[in-house]
Structure formats: structure tokens, C-alpha cells
Design brief:
binds magnesium ion, 5-stranded parallel beta sheet, alpha/beta, binds BIS(adenosine)-5'-pentaphosphate, binds zinc ion, 3-stranded antiparallel beta sheet, about 220 residues
Length: about 220
């Protein structure tokens, strides 16, 4: 099964993808994570993407389409993947169709996670992640079971993203409403768009996504 999790910054794409990876053995393909790894490695793509990401704008379609075309070819994607953060423009959506047709892959569903803009800022500014294994947390909504200790790996080191501040969130939301939301009708017309209430509690959102996936099997 191959799906897209689509939603604004802070909608819970990464949180839900992390869970689906475990329950469905699908691979999470987060373009944001790939770009952050490229920035950390100081690669050519990382150098180009750094300032764009810090400004909350979109990295160019050429770069993003190239990254995804390469990634989908890797053998670990054969079991199914969850696209998280891609596509984000109509050109990226069209390119994804071409890449998948070329490899005779099927896009089973696009799961749109709807969340009010007001809730997103609080989600993003309270977010942190384990520095060692990347598990995601929130100051209020998802604290580690033992304070300052990662549930998954026991590490006590945590990080916050450079673009997780109120100022950059405004630009990221503008990019979402200005470009990314335009791909929603594209998938609705194809008949594969499913919407879930991303305002619900994390476990309830998981349940709703699971119900969508059940209809696809
Ligand atoms: P990216 O990393 O994709 O960031 P984003 O889309 O802004 O989304 P986030 O990762 O912020 O949110 P999320 O939906 O994953 O939420 P999460 O689960 O963490 O992209 C970063 C940048 O890279 C972009 O701005 C752009 O510059 C560039 N980029 C990436 N892809 C690109 C592309 N295709 N084209 C061009 N540029 C690209 O949840 C957030 C917090 O809320 C967490 O703390 C979590 O614990 C909490 N939470 C989650 N769900 C709930 C819930 N239901 N209730 C309460 N709290 C919740
Ligand atoms: Mg994310
Ligand atoms: Zn960890």
C-alpha cells in the first residue's frame, strides 16, 4: 500500500507516519527529514535548502522531485510507503504520478489531515524530538513517559527544529495555503482523497486513519 499524508505544518503527519511504520511495515518518506539530513551533512542540496527552510518557504520542485524519484527506487519502498511532506505543489503531484506510472506503482489513498491554523502554532512551538532516534514529542500533548527520557531508546538528549518558531510558522502556513492546498482538488477528482479530523487526540486520529486503510485492503 502506498499513501500520502497531506496536511499543514504541525498537522501530525510525522506523528502518524511513525505509528503506521510500526503497524503496517510501510516506510515513512518525509521530505522534511531528508532535507534536514542533507543540511546536517552539508551536501549540495543541503546548502541550497537551508536558508529556504529557515524562511519557511518551499524548496524548488526540481530538487524535491529528484529526491523522491531516487528514494522511491530504493528496495525498502517495495513493501509500501507513506509520503509525508510530498507532494507540496501541483507540479510535484504531476511528477509523482509520472514516477509511479513509470514503476507501475499504485497510489492507494491521499489522507488529508485537517487542523485549524490556530492549533498549529501551539503544536509546532511545543514540539521536540529525541536527538538519538528521532522519536517525536510535545511539551503538552505528548510528553515522554519518564521525564527527560526517550520512550523509544532511553536517550536524554532532545532537539528542537530551527524552523519551529512562531515567525517561520506564519510563512510555512502561507506556503501551505498558497501552494500545497491546491493539490487537494487534484486528488479529489481522482477519487482517492480521504479526510480525517486532525484536531482529534493523537490516538483518535490514528484510529481514523486505520479505518481508511481498512477500506483499501
Ligand atoms: P516538513 O518537515 O515536512 O514540515 P511541515 O510540513 O511544516 O510539517 P511538520 O513536520 O512541521 O508537521 P507534522 O505534520 O509532521 O506534525 P508532527 O507530527 O510533527 O518540512 C520542513 C520544510 O522543508 C518546509 O517548510 C520546506 O521548506 C521544506 N520541504 C519539505 N518538503 C518539501 C517539498 N515537498 N517541497 C518543497 N519544500 C519542502 O506534529 C507536530 C507536533 O504536534 C508534535 O509535537 C506532536 O507531538 C503534536 N501532535 C501531533 N498530532 C497531534 C494531535 N492530534 N493532537 C495534539 N498534538 C499533536
Ligand atoms: Mg513532520
Ligand atoms: Zn530516542
Amino acid at each position: 500500500m502506498n499513501i500520502i499524508l497531506l496536511g499543514p505544518p504541525g498537522a501530525g503527519k510525522g506523528t502518524q507516519a511513525e505509528r503506521l511504520e510500526k503497524t503496517h511495515h510501510m516506510i515513512q518518506l518525509s521530505t522534511g527529514d531528508m532535507l534536514r539530513a542533507a543540511v546536517a551533512a552539508g551536501s549540495e542540496i543541503g546548502l541550497k535548502a537551508k536558508a529556504v527552510m529557515e524562511a519557511g518557504e518551499l524548496v524548488s520542485d526540481d530538487i524535491m522531485i529528484g529526491i523522491i524519484a531516487d528514494r522511491i527506487m530504493q528496495p525498502d519502498c517495495a513493501a509500501g510507503f507513506i509520503l509525508d511532506g510530498f507532494p507540496r505543489t501541483t507540479d510535484q503531484a504531476a511528477a509523482l504520478d509520472d514516477i509511479m506510472a513509470d514503476k507501475q506503482l499504485k497510489l492507494d489513498a491521499v489522507v488529508e489531515m485537517t487542523v485549524d491554523d490556530e492549533a498549529l502554532t501551539e503544536r509546532i512551538t511545543g514540539r521536540f524530538a529525541c536527538a538519538k532516534c528521532g522519536a517525536g514529542y510535545h511539551d503538552r500533548f505528548k510528553q515522554p513517559k519518564t521525564p527527560d527520557t526517550c520512550d523509544a531508546c532511553g536517550s536524554s538528549e532532545f532537539t528542537r527544529r530551527d524552523d519551529d518558531n512562531a515567525e517561520t510558522v506564519k510563512a510555512r502556513l502561507a506556503a501551505y495555503h498558497g501552494s500545497t492546498a491546491q493539490i487537494i482538488p487534484y486528488y479529489r477528482e481522482k477519487g482517492i482523497l480521504r479526510s480525517v479530523d486532525g484536531m482529534a487526540a493523537i490516538d483518535d486520529v490514528t484510529r481514523e486513519i486505520e479505518q481508511v486503510l481498512e477500506t483499501l485492503q
